[in-house]
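Appendix B. One record, verbatim.
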Amino acid sequence: MTTSTKGNASQRKEVSPAVLVLEDGRIFRGRAYGAVGETFGEAVFSTGMTGYQETLTDPSYDRQIVVATAPQIGNTGWNDEDDESRRIWVSGYVVRDPARVPSNWRAKRSLDDELVAQGIVGISGIDTRALTRHLRERGSMRAGIFSGEAIAAEPELVARVQAQPHMKGASLYEEVATKEAYVVPAVGEKKFTVAAIDLGIKGMTPHRMAERGIEVHVLPATASVEEVYAVNPDGVFFSNGPGDPATADGPVALMSAVLERRTPLFGICFGNQILGRALGFGTYKLKYGHRGINQPVQDRTTGKVEVTAHNHGFAVDAPLDKVSETKFGRVEVSHVCLNDNVVEGLQLLDQPGFSVQYHPEAAAGPHDAAYLFDRFTSLMSTVMEGQRA
């Protein structure tokens, strides 16, 4: 999906009309929200009444037009602390009832003003329940938002949306990843060193590790095996990220090299899909994906059900009912989404490594799965103790 010309802020205060056009010809008319202009992306819906700042700055939403299912958005404005990355990554934003005045002690400006400042084209005043139901029944699809002078005849707008590339087959992780390595120091006593492969990493992820005494070396998505092991890692982490995992041959090769060295390993979201591919499993595109903060997942290792935050349009195709033999040893599905039985985690049985498809670092909550970072530190501790013995 590509984001086209983004509007300018000076046009916007007259509240221009806006139109959302889906690739199947469905059209919603409303008012411009944020910048005025045009944008294209994959239309997806995200559940949750809170956490829109974290959602909008999550690199995994690159080239997607996000539909907020909660009716009123923007109540808490925009602050300078909660960004998950250096910028807003969504292509466009769709809300029903934008808050007129933000009210929060940390707010520095309104959500609308931030969207304008970053050139994010949005639309408000449409029936987001009808839109969500349409996407749920027919699947995520290409879309465009047009406002101001970008509005044209409906057939022309539909044709322009249909000319955009699909998300399936899109390679986006290099677009959002850091270009330079950087270090997030451990909080308090340093206990471990982790090499984190940035495929679109959220800022809260290295923070959650640093809280546990981990010095995190965040490396570009294109990092080589030599660059990873140059930091002498006790563990390797593969982050979340956007796009189709079937295109990520470079990260899969790096994951395979880490598996060959039997280094403690942890993957989140895109990292889970990369591990799946390295183990020989396929991936596939979900009809409408999992996006939001209220998805029930069962940890099969404990039987516990967790309410978790998700953002994924692809999943690993691995058997739920048996242990699988791979070239790196046995592996089993450790977590399953209770809504649709989608694979939500993988556990290596013959070496130290695991991954989850959802987001245990979720800054906006829920925090049911934060213990997975402790599981990662336990793996590293066990390996280090074995090496000393």
